[in-house]
Design brief:
The structure is a single chain. By secondary structure, this protein is mainly alpha-helical. It has one domain (3-172). The protein has helices at 6-20, 25-46, 67-83, 86-114, 116-125, 145-150, 154-172. Helix 2 packs antiparallel against helix 3 (67-83) and helix 3 (67-83) packs antiparallel against helix 4 (86-114). It is elongated, with a radius of gyration of 17 Å. The termini are far apart. The mean pLDDT is 92.
């Protein structure tokens, strides 16, 4: 699927998930905890990345090359657990399967061309997606709250309580 469709399809998947959701208190709490963990990873990653200016290799980028996407996957499946619907889990899984492999490949190609030596060294010791336990690679980037703000991660951070409220309201319906 073309990357430009990722955000519009994300909204469609979100509305579908809300419609299909059948949240119950325990799964709502567990799912939102997993989603919060995912957002924490995204904030950590956003504080290291300077898009197109340098290669982020520190913090979560020393555990996997795509921590923003790992965080998003945790958020998505956390929302699916909170929704307590196998249909939502299928929709979330389908969304990630449709978009993430090609986006990850194209970003890797871009980084390989933009930072050939740094990317080669980093990619030899840091896995593409599934994180390694111990950090590896050059670990040159440092966390900055200013970068978190510049990368507009506040939008995703604000969406999480919004999703929680919507799922809670859905549980009452």
């Amino acid at each position: 699927m073309p990357s430009r469709l990722r955000v519009p399809f994300g909204y469609v998947a979100g509305f579908l998930a809300l419609w299909l959701a059948r949240p119950v208190p325990l799964l709502l709490a567990l799912g939102l905890a997993l989603a919060a963990l995912g957002e924490g990873i995204r904030i950590w990653a956003s504080g290291h990345i300077e898009k197109t200016r340098s290669l982020a290799t520190g913090g979560p980028y020393a555990h996997c090359r795509n921590p923003l996407y790992c965080g998003s996957v945790l958020m998505g499946f956390g929302a699916a657990i909170a929704a307590a619907s196998p249909w939502v889990a299928l929709a979330v899984g389908g969304y990630f399967a449709a978009f993430y492999p090609s986006v990850i490949r194209s970003e890797a190609d871009f980084l390989r061309q933009k930072f050939p030596q740094e990317y080669a060294e980093w990619s030899r010791s840091v896995p593409l997606f599934l994180p390694r336990v111990m950090p590896a690679g050059p670990r040159l980037s440092r966390f900055s709250w200013q970068r978190v703000a510049q990368n507009k991660e506040w939008r995703t951070a604000l969406a999480l309580p919004g999703v929680a409220v919507l799922l809670y309201l859905r549980s009452l319906w």
